[in-house]
Structures are given as C-alpha cells and as structure tokens.
Specification:
It is found in: Cell membrane. It comes from Candidatus Methanoperedens nitratireducens. It holds the Pfam family UbiA. One of its GO terms (molecular function) is transferase activity, transferring alkyl or aryl (other than methyl) groups. The structure is a single chain. The protein is globular, with a radius of gyration of 19 Å. It has a two-stranded antiparallel sheet with strand order 1-2. By secondary structure, the chain is mainly alpha-helical. The two termini are 21 Å apart. Helix 2 runs parallel beside helix 5. The chain has one domain.
C-alpha cells in the first residue's frame, strides 16, 4: 500500500479506498505462493514454515474471499478493470504452479533470471499501473518512471532474498543467480544494480524527465539498499531476519519517508 501512497502523492490525488486494491492482489498471490513454496521454506526458513503450517489456511481463506470481492467490484466498474486485477493473479498461479515441459514438471520460477524479473515487473504493474488506471490518472512519464523505480528496487531485493533460500532452492529445482553463480558474484551484482539503477534515474533528473519528488525517493531507496547489503556483509543480522524484516519492509520506510517530506 505504501507504494500506491507514493502514487497518490505523485499525482496530487487524495488517498482513498483504491489504495487497498494492490494490497489485496499481492496478499492473495503471496499467500498462495507460501503454500506452493512449503518445501523450500522448510529448508531455508523453518520458523516461517512452522508459522505457515499453522495459519496459512486462515490467510488463504481471507485472501481469496477478499480477492473475490475485489474481482466482482472491478468487473462492475468495467471489463478492463476486472482483467487488470485478474492478470497478476493469473501470472502468480503460473509462476508458482508446476507445468509439464518436455516431459518434465517445472515452475516458471524455476527458470534462471525469470523468477526475479517476473516478480519485479508484477509488483510495478500492481502497485502503480493498476491503481493509476482505477483513478484515471494520465499515463505520463512520471507514472512510467515510478513503475521503473518499483521494478528496479524489487529486482534488487528479490535477488538479495534468494541468498536466504540458497539451501532450499536447489532442493526444489529452482535456479537462481545465487545457486548458479555463487554468493560473491551475487554480492557484486547487487552493488552494481543498486548503483546503475540510481544513476539512470539521476540522469533522468539531469535531463529534465524526472521530478525532484521522485529523485528524493530514489536516493533514499538506494541508500536503504546499500544499508541492508552492508548489514549482510558485516553479518550483523541473521539472513532470514534481515530478509523478512529489513528488506521486505523497505517500502514501508519509503511510504513513511514520503509522508514526512510531504507533510513538513
């Protein structure tokens, strides 16, 4: 919801119920994914696995009930909106479910690079494009640049979170950058991507296509990215806690940062 809050502020629109739409979509996708990823979680994060074993059925019931109401609401608003809501859910099903390919059962998330890319682009679509469409916000360069920002931050955090799954992913047949190229390469790649994506957006500001508002968010997020990468390298926080709390909570801090900068 915090990323959609950024969208509202960027567009100068009053925050309303539309902010809950991305939350419901991502909640149902991630709850379903926790069910299909039970094998990996049992190896990589036993505490999360135990928690999901106890409560996931309740989360699933709530998630699908809420999502069902959202689908009905979206189609009553218009076919376009209903299809926009269903699209990321369909991608999430294909992403997590095993399909037959050349007599072998695989998931799309098992394909190297595809896993990180599809999660990042889906997040950008759900948190920016869908609410912008529901709000009838014109699709100008700021909307696309915000989408690129979300994509870049999610791509980095998804690659980082694969570190904690380095034990469970090979057992499940999932190829990731960490398991294929090793921790050292992954660490260097994270630093490179964090710098490269930030420089791209700074150049965008320099040539006049990126607003000061978005530049401030980008610089803050880049600093946050370096912060959790540094915490990992210094071994100051256990990797599961670092991923589940610090990394997964990055956009909450972005929302809080935007709230402070727009309120003061």
């Amino acid at each position: 919801m915090s990323l959609s809050y950024v969208l509202f502020k960027l567009a100068g629109t009053q925050v309303d119920y539309i902010i809950f739409i991305p939350f419901l979509i991502m909640f149902v996708i991630y709850t379903f994914n926790r069910k299909t990823d039970a094998r990996e979680d049992a190896l990589s994060d036993p505490n999360k696995f135990k928690f999901n074993e106890l409560y996931n059925k309740y989360f699933l019931a709530f998630a699908f009930a809420g999502f069902g109401l959202l689908v009905v609401f979206s189609f009553t608003k218009g076919i376009k909106y209903g299809l926009e809501v269903l699209m990321p859910f369909a991608i999430g099903i294909l992403y997590s479910s095993r399909i037959s390919l050349k007599s072998k059962m695989i998931r799309l998330k098992d394909i190297l690079f595809f896993k990180n890319f599809i999660v990042a682009i889906t997040w950008a679509f759900v948190t920016v494009i869908i609410p912008a469409s529901f709000l009838n916000i014109p699709f100008k360069q700021d909307i696309y640049l915000l989408s690129f920002f979300v994509f870049s931050r999610l791509l980095i955090s998804e690659i980082f979170c694969d570190i904690k799954d380095a034990k469970g992913d090979p057992e499940a047949g999932t190829k990731t950058i960490v398991t294929v190229y090793g921790l050292s390469f992954t660490n260097k790649l994270l630093f490179f991507l964090n710098i490269a994506f930030t420089l791209i957006l700074i150049i965008g500001y320099w040539v006049g296509i990126l607003s000061t508002f978005l530049l401030e968010i980008c610089i803050f997020s880049a600093g946050y990215g370096f912060f959790y990468i540094l915490l990992y390298n210094l071994k100051l926080i256990e990797i599961n806690k670092l991923s589940n709390i610090i990394v997964d909570g990055q956009f909450i801090t972005v929302g809080f940062f935007v709230f402070l900068t727009t309120s003061l």
